[in-house]
Amino acid sequence: MSENKSPDTVLDLFNSIAAGYEVGTGGCTYDTARHIFSLCPITKDSIILDNACGPGIVAHYLLSAAAFSSQPAPTLHCTDFSPAMIQVARDTFAQLPNAASVSFDVMSGEDLSFPDNTFTHSITNFGIMFFPDAVQGAKEIYRTLRPGGTAVVTSWAKMGYVEPIHRAQKATKPHCELFVPPMPPQWYSAEHVIDVLKKGGFEHVEIHEKVVCFGGESAREVSEMVLKLFGGIITKTWSDEEKRRFEEELHKAVEHCQISFERPTFGREGAASTVFGVPMTALVAVARK
């Protein structure tokens, strides 16, 4: 029996938000991708799977890094079970000068069509928790990874936007059912991530936490991103007045919870821009075959 939501439910969710996904995540998944490749450097000869790729954030980071350093891009394969996500990735990458090194395929992470021992690196960045059968997904990661290759799988230990959402809900409708993020609760546990990867075949798994930021230029921008992602779910049955008040309360709650965060700037060594937002704590599991 599946431990997670039905494939159709999750597919519908990701198809519906595909166009705004990268912006809507406040840069936190991109920050995590940057961190991943500080742990496992790649070369022009690397062959990398961006598994459950969404709009291709991992691959986009790698192509951008290669372009800004004037280095050849590695070979990249982007796969996702959402046709809408793959189309967003295709459209985005068409604008990049080194896009020829990337392929795109609609493909389930539990049934990858690649031969055994294909990839030097396999990255599943905040995707495996939505697989109906995560252990089978881990087995496919293991099968398609070369001996000596590195797999990185990420999940969330803490989602920083939950606290301001709850504050805003309580201020608007004190007795309403509080928002629960659409991620199965077991995936907040490092032990669960390790267990899934070991059941998939990996013997050596290390995991650590990395704090990133769901951020933007202001608290207002961050609260608007949260509303775009989850507002329709949270306030679906609310009156227009309740929705208006919730928006204002969310803005105040984000201001209360926000931090400043220095986000590195591509192409400018040592440069960074200051963003404001809520901290997100990623679980980063590194496994070797």
Automatic annotation (TrEMBL):
<keyword id="KW-0808">Transferase</keyword>
<dbReference type="GO" id="GO:0008168">
    <property type="term" value="F:methyltransferase activity"/>
</dbReference>
<dbReference type="GO" id="GO:0032259">
    <property type="term" value="P:methylation"/>
</dbReference>
<dbReference type="InterPro" id="IPR029063">
    <property type="entry name" value="SAM-dependent_MTases_sf"/>
</dbReference>
<dbReference type="Pfam" id="PF13649">
    <property type="entry name" value="Methyltransf_25"/>
</dbReference>
<dbReference type="InterPro" id="IPR041698">
    <property type="entry name" value="Methyltransf_25"/>
</dbReference>
<keyword id="KW-0489">Methyltransferase</keyword>
<feature type="domain" description="Methyltransferase">
    <location>
        <begin position="48"/>
        <end position="149"/>
    </location>
</feature>
<protein>
    <submittedName>
        <fullName>S-adenosyl-L-methionine-dependent methyltransferase</fullName>
    </submittedName>
</protein>
